[in-house]
Design goal:
This protein is mainly β. It is about 0% helix and about 50% strand.
């Protein structure tokens, strides 16, 4: 059974960069679309971006699309979220998720989730 294991995150200062990883185990990430979501304190979870198995990328969150970059290493079965120039409003729990074929903004469309990782940005 496919599982996603996240790494990265933690406490960073405003303006710094960090990269989150989402590694698959128990199966290969082939045609699955991988998305990143985040949930800020007191807010609902929102989609950040998604990449399909054909490397098509969809950006959902305008506030970060110039700063956050989604990528995948198909040989390593791993997806990444590179976060640049992070700001305090980027604080939240970041999660990766997988679903077969196409991307979706809706979290209910994703069947497999990583465990989530906390990112805290200090000013």
């Amino acid at each position: 059974q496919l599982q996603l294991v996240q790494s990265g995150g933690g406490l960073v200062q405003s303006g710094e960069s960090l990269t989150l990883s989402c590694a698959a185990s128990g199966g290969a990430l082939g045609w699955e679309a991988i998305a990143w979501f985040r949930q800020a304190p007191g807010k609902e979870r929102e989609a950040i971006s998604c990449m399909t198995g054909r490397r098509n990328t969809v950006n959902y969150l305008d506030s970060v699309k110039e700063r956050f970059i989604i990528s995948r290493d198909f040989a390593q079965n791993t997806a990444y979220l590179e976060m640049n120039n992070v700001q305090p409003e980027d604080t939240g729990v970041y999660s990766c998720a997988a679903r077969l074929y196409g991307c979706s903004r809706s979290q209910s469309a994703y069947s497999t989730w990583g465990q989530g990782t906390q990112v805290t940005v200090s000013s």
